[in-house]
Amino acid sequence: MSDPVAPRAAAIRCIDLSKSYHLYRGPGEEMLDAVGFLRLMPWRKPVPLHPALRGVSLTIGHGERVGIIGRNGAGKSTLLKLVTGAAAPSAGVLLVDGTVQSLSSLGIGFHPEFSGIENIKSALVYNSLSEDALAAAIEDIVEFCELDRFMDMPIRSYSAGMLARLYFATATAIRPDILVVDEVLGAGDAYFAARSAARMRQLALSGCTLLLVSHSNQQVLEFCERCIWIERGRVVADGSTLSVIKAYEAFIQHLAHAQGGGDDVIHNERIVDDALLTALQESPVASTQADVQADGGISAWPASRRVRISDAWFEDAQGAPSRIGVHGSDWTIAIRVRIEQEGSYRFRPAHVLFGPDGRWSTRLIGPPTTLEGPVGTEREVRCRFSPMRLGPADYVLSVSLHGANEPWDIGTAERFDLLSRSFAFTVKPRSGQRPGKALPVRHDAEWARI
Predict the structure, then answer these.
(1) Distance (Å, rounded) from C-alpha 116 to C-alpha 134?
(2) Nearest CA to 13 among 112, 83, 74?
């Protein structure tokens, strides 16, 4: 009887992983330290250390698609350098199981005097491909690049866009066990960016482990099922992509509103800690129907909240509460607005709908509405799709209230309330209709106030 197959180790495992960099005061000091002379100069001030990563512990399984987000300098790229072997940890344990391909430094190793085809061949040789696999990879790269006769010219004559095509196509021609991507999906023009995103999607669905660092939350939502948020070298959130993205977006909004968003804010640890606590804590429930809340619950952005959204729900064609709409049938988004500070308010409601890939599908702005009275005064506002023209898919909804005094603009008007990506609903195909895709659409709606 044969022994059972042992389970495969995790693709990436970090145990109390830390990385610090010396902050040298100049190249001369760095050279003295490299040759060991600084230890012989006790009168010199010690070289300060910058902790880029501090005690990071996490496990990423084979086949997982993980996004890593955080502000500039948070430690995201440092973590990728450790995973790819470009840097060594200062402390802790890092275990990587499988071959790693990095798209974080496109073009490294390419020689400007070599032609495009010569650089492709020399880059692929390092991957130990068989002759047949090498020929297939070269054919795939040449076809994807669409550089035609330029493939036989030295790459020093290439434009930046042509180089981006060559680098990206070569780096993605082979499927590794672990694919590391650091801010390269926007390379090239809009046409090539769309093609590179489609190629990345194929790689992400091929079974390899994906580690994606990006400042584009939409890209992380599109490609990743899990998200890790790093702040000042530590993991502050690790979970489903939508829930972590929502907390991070709220954190950025709170930072932007702190003390007017001056440059001193981002270096003030107390303000950053307060923004972190606010973004990560539970927001007050703004719906009587828990099943309509999106993954991660309610995400309340900074706002005056003199009037606020106290409830939100969906209704079907018969007016019954339902988070499921049918393409081609009537369907309604309903909110309840409540006065929190006595007065008279003129506001506009706004809804933004996002598809499953994180891209917005449509935006709806309602007419001016007046609400006045004491604290606790409420009014319902309904936005009716007659009929629903959104493609069959899962959606998330942001709802907001903005001051409507003239001259009016949603970007400059007072924000009374904003609940970002906080509610979820599904559009089902009508009978006999195939499931579709969530695409941007200009959608008319009928607004009503009760």
Answers:
(1) 15
(2) 83
